Prior knowledge:
It is a single chain. About 30% of the residues are buried. The strands form ten sheets. This protein has a four-stranded antiparallel sheet. The protein has about 525 residues and is an alpha+beta fold. The chain has ten helices and 27 strands. Helix 1 packs across helix 4 (about 130-140) and helix 2 packs across helix 3 (about 110-120).
Amino acid sequence: MPETHDTAERRRALAGPKRWRRIVGVIALAVVLLLVGTGAALTLVTSGFVKSERIARNVYIEDLRVEGMTVADASAALERDWVPRLPKELELQYPGGKLAIPPGTLGASLQTDKAAASAYRVGREGGWLQRVLTQVQLRRRPVHIEVECTVNEEALDAALAEIAGQVNKKPKNAEVEVTDGDKVIVKPEIVGVVVNLEKSKEALLNGLKDVEAKDVQLVVTEQQPDIKAGDLQNLDTVLASYSTHFNPGQVGRTRNLTLATIEVNKSVVMPGEVFSVNDTVGERSPHRGYQRAPIFGEGGNLRDDYGGGLCQVASTLFNAALRANMKIIERSQHNRMVTYVPLGLDAMVSYGSIDMRFRNSLQYPVLILGDVSGDELTFKIIGSKADKAEVKVERSGVGTVGPSTKEIKDPDLEEGKRVLESSGWSGGYATAWRMTKIDGKWEKTWGDSSSYSPGPNVYKVGAKKKDKDKDKTKAGESETKQPAGTDTGTPPSSETGPPPKPVPRIPTAPSGGSRTTPSG
């Protein structure tokens, strides 16, 4: 039966999709065969690579290409070609300075062997598909391995402590130099630095991780000095000066007052600040160079002790401060009179108990200059012309009394005999005050009364009964000799005479007056 037009059209319509399905099927088969072939090929290649000891293609450690190398070769190449290009030292920077330290000193260690082992594992990790994909990716882009830097923190802590010892510095006050007598030159202050160990360690750990880092900023805390150059710009005039004399032949005493004067010299006292002799000079001990010299002990008797002579330093400085119009905070008299300052103008000190202190009650700082030359000790107080005041120091009620007398019975000395055991000393009293001209009028700005007890002449008086029989055998005989130092009944001498007239009563010193604590 002949094929109709409709039947032919229907047949052609059905044949089209079948043909395309066959074409797609052929293409799919070809792709599968291609993939299988490629996979087989890659499998063979990957299998051979995994079994080798070589690093995969296109693998770098840092900027060093290590493909085809063994782990040992790669590690050696790093040490040979890469490590020498790194900074040999890490510069540690801080305000006012810097230190260059090898990273190894800070406990840093480069892990080149570990990096070589990481490079070797590229393309060898994961399953078959992962390894194949890695090989494909390596054809298009490289893999870079970083060299890790590890830090031994104990070594870093030890190194940082040593670094802090070099970097740390105490603040230093502005200083002065005096030339041409009283010309003052100000030297600038130094700002102190203290390393913050915790924060500096953190900064170093971060810096050491970057193997190419050249510097790290240490974290420090600045400490400002108490006195800056600007505070001392007004030291332009001598407010007061006072000198006393001493015997240079008393070697120990001379050394003591020289050491103390050195400690006081160039002291700066800021407005409102209190100056203390004891705090400034410190303990008078042999390990600090002080020697034994006479001091007034309990009751006014002389004895040797370390630091003898310091009271002359305190007294000289007291008189300079008094005339510079400083506010006197603490001043104590001696328990007997001294010869290096007028009566009533001495100042006793004893470390740990009695001090001489004054406050800078002026509007500008003052500078204390001390000098020992020949037999003279001098203190000058330098300040501002604006603080220069008219001052006068006056005294009244000045008087002295001779030694008293004390007798001690001696059972070994015959009755009627009297021997001088020890000589006493005179006492005295005085009132001193300071007058300052304020707004054209003189005003009393300090005053104190002092009294110094006399020391007794001590006599031994015979208490031994005479032998009557012995006296009888010597009746009529005249004695031509007397024991040395005894009273012979002859007119009294200056040492063995009768007790002096009653001693007048000495006015009692007010608060801050006489004390009996040992002093220099």
